[in-house]
Amino acid sequence: MAGFFIALLSGALMSIQGVFNTQVTKTTGEYVSNAWVQFSALAVCLGVWFFAGRDSFGAIARVEPKYMLLGGVIGAGITWTVIRSMEQLGPAKAALLIVMAQLIVAYLIELAGLFGVEKEPLEWRKVGGMALAL
């Protein structure tokens, strides 16, 4: 049940962050804004790690497959595309399209068993739900 509420919080925070980032971009430009987002996220993570974590950074070298380490690169792309889509479409329409794309791609990842995710069988109910969302 906690996962349900965490997912709702994540969605709400993503929408708020997108609006904030878009406003910062109006003053700074998209690359400075994106760099600020990534830098401030790093600062928060390091602060939390310092007080609560202390996992070894050396564990990064043991991550396999290595392409899994591209999450930060993808995150920079996500920040840029959210800023641009919210700027051009507005927060509501951009968020709707972003969530629809997330649902479709996440389901395709499950169906194909990509990136180490357990392969799931096709469920027409889920396909119908996505078609309805479109």
Automatic annotation (TrEMBL):
One of the record's GO cellular component terms: plasma membrane
Origin: domain of life: Bacteria
Keyword Transmembrane: yes
Keywords associated with the record: Membrane, Transmembrane, Transmembrane helix
This protein's record includes keyword Membrane: yes
Transmembrane segments: 31-53, 65-83, 95-117
Matching PANTHER family: INNER MEMBRANE PROTEIN YDCZ
Name of protein: DMT family transporter
Organism: Lachnoclostridium phocaeense
